[in-house]
# Entry
Amino acid sequence: MKQNQEPIFVVDDDQGILDSFDAIFGDDYPVVLLDSGAKALQVITEENPKLLFLDIKMPGLNGLEILRWMQEKSFSTKVVIVTALPQGKYEEIAQRYGVYRYLKKPFDLDEVENIAKTVLH
Amino acid sequence: VHEWPRKISIWRKPRYIPLQYRFILLSSGLVTLLLAIVALVVSYQQGLTIRDHVERRGLAIAQSLAATSKAALTTYNYISLSQSANQAAQDPDLAYVIIHDKEGRVAGYSGRPELEGKFLTDDLSQRAVSSSVPLVQTGSLETTRTPILDIAVPVAIQGSERPWGVVRVALSLGPMHRQIRQVQLTIGGIGIMALALAVLVCIWLARRIANPVSLLADATIIAAQGNLDQEIRITTGDEVEVLADNFSTMIREILQQRRLLERQLQEITSLQSYMNKLLTTMSDGLLSVDMEGRMVTANPAACRMLDVPMSAFECGEDVGSALKRAPELLEYLRGAIESPSSAGQREIQVALGQEVKDIIVASSILTDKVNDPKQVIINLHDVTALKKLEARIRQTERLAALGTLSAGMAHEIRNPLSAIKTFVQLLPRKLEKPGFLEKFQRTVPRELERINRLIEDLLELARSPKYKFEMTDIGSILNQALELLEEDLLSHRIQCRCELPEEMPLAWADGDQIAKAFHNIIRNAVQAMPSGGVLRIRALIGPLPDGLPVSQGGAQGAMTPWLTIAFSDTGVGMGPEEMKNIFNPFFTLKDSGTGLGLAITHKVITEHGGHIEVESTPGMGACFSIHLPLKEACKVDRLSATATI
# Structure
């Protein structure tokens, strides 16, 4: 089953978050964990992912910059922003850049699983 | 001082007579006098000449008669003598002809035959008969009272001592007098004509001379009345022209000076009104007080500020009573009066009922010509509103800082919280799955520890300073910090170059805190060089670099030596915006860490009375410099102290 599934991409500089996504989806989907924006750009270009969980606050390239870049390059990827930043303004910016969903940490397990099901099935 | 008018006024106040008339009067008088003298002299001379001429004629007649009567006299021939007398008397100019004989009797009398042989008793005849030389006498006819000239000539006979008789001829002086009057009239007529001519010449001359002067005088009168804008043209080619030219120049200059003065006056007036406006409209209060402590001026703003009616600040009022509600201001003012130069700027409070005003007072001194203080001018600047605004801004800033801190904290807590939540939620479902429990045990405690460390760091940052200060060997603390991080340095392939003086000084510091600060900086450098590099640590002793303030924590003077430790890496570096925020809590450029490390380092160094600085260029690495004050001069070689980083 896992081999036939589309992979889920996760970009976050926090090891705990990467570990969490691995724990959630690792058994059912191939999970690509990326710990920096620079790595994300390369992988996204190569793989054109269907579903991408993206953190905002990262050293170097941040999540919103990646999102804008993806919009400019017209990727069909469904991007789910997962951030710990409390400020509402980032959500507005993300909406403008065509975000699929905007989740705040700590996110709900069911919500994340539903998104994956909806997007990938 | 002009003495001359006073002298004249003491003597006599001269009447105003125009120069022209004075000249005419004087010269005419002189000419008249001259002409009168000439006329008198000439007419007198003429009179004399005429009289002399008459005398000679009479004498000639008498002598010729005497010559012809000689024979008749010696013979006493009265008839012949009487005939001769009557014949001679036919000349109309002769009043009478008398011939006396040797004894003095009348021998012949023209027209009077009844007197023959008689003696004449009148004085004239007596003197004539008794004279032995020709005698000329004046007298008048007894009958007609006509003036006559009586000429008596004695008839001398040779050989006889006594004369043989006297021949008397009387010439009527009427014609002579008429002639003399005629001459006088002629001279008088010529004289009057000459006088008239002379007066005319005088008038012309007077006009010629006095006209320019009176023109000039008119000009001076006009000028004296204030009209200086006039041109005086006098071309007489003499002193008057020079006078007029100089007068013109003078009034021109006066005019220029007056215009200048008017302009300056206008400027002064406008400046004054500008100043008055300024004083009235300015929001700062202004009081001026003389050196005896009496009010001079106060502007409306000062009255408003001190809530005192304008009347209390009237000129001459005692300051003590005017300012009794503002004792602090009064005290400042008295200080300023006592020592004007030492009163600087001060912030005072004035209580007006419920309201307390914060006022900044400053003073300046108004001095007179010899630099003696005359007035103290007090400037009052109401900063009450400003202070309130400042307080509001500070409050806002505090809230904003709290907001930033909270946001940073939220971010830092929510990441580990997400991981913990996820694993906890997965636990019932995936407990049986192979490997899950290992992952759980690896992740959850780690994330919990992160939260705990964050809280500890926060507490550390917020902790009030509680240090154990002692003379601390900074060199060994630095080495210990490097030893602790040795593994990190090795794993990141970082080469560490430590350039410390042989003998590092002791500093008045809390060793544990300084160790923490060093640890944070070195760890920061390690994380800035993920793919290896060089960490260079240098220390030197010297004066504090320019631009850094001597902070109160260490209470060190500018001469105290400072220990500077510089940590430079070859990492990613940062831009100006990042440099500005690098010591702010939760500001982080790294993958791991809470973003509180450098904030804590900053706090520790600052609380040691030191400074921490950062210099960096993106991509070129960064250099953190710590400056710590040294309590006393150390033993380190002075040469290294003067070296620059």
Remarks:
- The helical segments of chain A are 15-25, 37-47, 63-72, 89-96, 109-120.
